[in-house]
Amino acid sequence: MKIFCARLRSITGFLIAAAVLDPAYAQFVPGQVLTATQLNSALQNAAIQGGAINGATIGSSRPSSGAFTSLAASTSNPSLLFNFGGAGESDRALQAILQEQKISVIAFGADPTGTRPSATAIQNAINYACASPSQKTVYEPPGTYLWDHSVTINCPAVKLIGAGGGGYNDNAPTINATTINRWVGAQGGTALKIMPAADQKVEDNSVMGIFWDGNNSLGGIAVNLVSARYGTYDIRAAHWSTAFVQTDISAAATENSDVTGNIFYNISGYQTLPTDGSVLITNSAYNHNACWNHFFLIQAVYFNSPGVVLNGDDSERFDVINLYNADNGTAKGLVLNGSNTSPYANTRHNTFYLVGTGGGQRGNQGGVYSQGLDASGNPLAYPATGNNIVWYDAENSQAMPTIDPGSSLWWSEDNAPAGMRQFYYTSSPVGYVQVDNSGKITQAGQITIPAGGTSGSFTFPTYQGNTTAGFPHAVVSVQATPTTAAVPFWVSATNTAVTITSGSPDSALTFSFKVEGY
């Protein structure tokens, strides 16, 4: 018995020593209580081989459930906090931070490769933004997106933003813009509509950083603002059959439905195909119109459709209209229309700080038309009136304005002095015409008496806004000065002509004259 006990103690000591000296490979008896030292040693000496511990992988306690839609905190799921590390910044829930970020249309299935139509995906992203209390910016990452039907923003504050709309010279087939929306829908369709839902209002929207490709006049309108207010826009486009931008009045809105308070930083592009339309068209209704909007720059090439057509704008500000009439183009650059139906539908009281609409191929291209007569030549009940062009650019062979009887347009060529309604230079005779704010007309020019002649005269034209030639009321002063030689002469003027008389000179005599009247 003593021998058995001694042998048992020896075996037990060997097992304990083995467990201590080689814990990674120790074999423990079920139910055995292990010390902390034994557990730590066993784990720290485990060999990791190719992602497995001692050759065997650790199984998942439960399989992955895939995508999740919420990071909200719960008892079993503590909130994930995030901190950018800026001075004074506090930890915030990651979910709250993500809910403030812009919404990518790609997350809704849009295809930036231009292979599949993306209009439905973009509409779904916009609908999500309309419903979201915090995410209002819908983002189109770099790429080309095919629009096969119209997309509508019908709620306030939602913005559609791209990565870059390209330069003024972007033109199909070479478009260098970073984000391109290309129309592939029905002929004459509208790509984006910003309009209220039923009798609601839509404000504070924005469209920027996108090039709108009309696909060779397949599309009708790139962006249509319907009773949209207080938004910001930068529209760059090419080849739309109606216009890059068109404004309209909602028939469903019963309160103030004006298109008002918007800022257009830029409307630019190419309308150079025979089937292309205008750059900008504004429309009005009986009681409402486009008013108090600010256009910083309209810069485009146009062809056989008028560049900018205003139908009832009131008190708008246009900083620069820089339009270039394409080769052999026939259209006016800027059209100011009147109305026979409503005093709110005639174009009035707008200010244009610089207008250039000519072309370099031939003289007298483009120009401005201010309407006072209907298509049959009858006076309009509400002609275009009280519009002012501060600087009518004389470069690029821009045609002189055409103003119908009954319509009024104040304009000056190359930045006339303040207080002038009109100021422009004339070539026949060489001189100028000036009309100040009191209505006084000044006609200056030159008259030449040929050698052997005794007199020369100049017949006054029909001045802008008048219906008959010459001074409507009376001549108040007339002056003349010989420019070739000091000779005796006499000068007289009627309401229709000025005449200078001087003997029978051996050589031609030239006189400068100035006639003032009302």
TrEMBL record:
The keyword Signal applies. SUPFAM superfamilies: Pectin lyase-like. It comes from the Bacteria. Residues 103-309 form the Rhamnogalacturonase A/B/Epimerase-like pectate lyase domain. Residues 1-26 form the signal peptide. InterPro entries: Pectin_lyas_fold (IPR012334), Pectin_lyase_fold/virulence (IPR011050), RHGA/B-epi-like_pectate_lyase (IPR024535). The keyword Signal applies. Keywords: Signal. Gene3D superfamilies: Single-stranded right-handed beta-helix, Pectin lyase-like. This is Exported phage protein. It comes from Burkholderia cenocepacia (strain ATCC BAA-245 / DSM 16553 / LMG 16656 / NCTC 13227 / J2315 / CF5610) (Burkholderia cepacia (strain J2315)).
